Amino acid sequence: MRPSSSNVTDIEIIEDFSATARCDEGFLRVRRLRCRNRRADGSSSSVYRVDVVDRPRLDAVSVLIYRRASDGNVEVLTRMNLRPAAYFRREQTASMTVPDTVSYLRVEEIVAGLLEPSDKGEEGLRRRAAEEVKEEAGYTVRPEDIQLLGGAFFLAPGILSEKVFPAAVDVTGVEPGEVEGDGSPLEEGIHLQWRPLSAVLEACRRGDIADAKTEVSLTRLLARLA
Question: Where is the Nudix hydrolase domain (predicted)?
């Protein structure tokens, strides 16, 4: 466990320029489409609207970092990150069908990063995963140490085009270095901690860890270790 380098207590909105911003600029791009279904008999459905959210870099890789403790049990590393989109849920309280009183200033999850255009194929996935492990957790591993945990999956296929490629790496006996990060304000106050795999999985199932890629990766690693 490492201490936080900054005690962020709130995220202040300086300006909401949603009404004047184009939907194809910024970190996310929203495509607003009119579509219709084409059928095998040549007929078509009525026209309906579809919104698709893309990133300039389409897909991501996640990495479940784990180690074997002295008692033989498996421990996994999670990371607390500032997540403004989750935090600002609190402004939508009136729209919630199920009350949610949790403050999601930080969300606990595993290491992940966007795939660059140069990250081609399995070799590119392993290389990017190893780089993210070094940047976000401080562990130096080789691309060939990365274990791919099966096929990629959508997080929200109704609106998001992004797929996540799950991976894992065993760092038993590896000493961590400094966490580099990317220097952005979103990386203020990150916090890493080791816990038993079973405890983290139970936290996911309780909803204390509300991150889908973390739970998917945990269950896939369990299946592989078994």
Answer: 56-217
Among 210, 79, 220, CA closest to 147:
220
Q: By percentage, how much of the chain surpasses pLDDT 90? A: 72
* Structural domain contains residue 36: no
Q: Average pLDDT of 131-135?
A: 96
Give tens-digit pLDDT for 97-111: 988 888 889 999 999
Find out whether 170 and 145 touch, Cβ atoms under 8 Å: yes
Give the DSSP per-residue string, 85-110: HHHGGGGGGGG-SS------SEEEE-
What's the CATH code of the domain at 99? 3.90.79.10
Residue 15 lies in a domain: no
Would you say residue 150 lies in a domain? yes
Q: How far is CA 225 from CA 23, 40, 63, 74, 198, in A?
A: 44, 45, 16, 10, 13
pLDDT digits (tens, 9 = 90+) for 171-180: 999 999 988 8
What is the number of domains present in the chain?
A: 1
Domain containing residue 205: 57-225
Retrieve residue 223's tokens.
């299946």
12 falls within a domain: no
Mapped onto helix, strand or coil, the DSSP state of residue 49 is strand
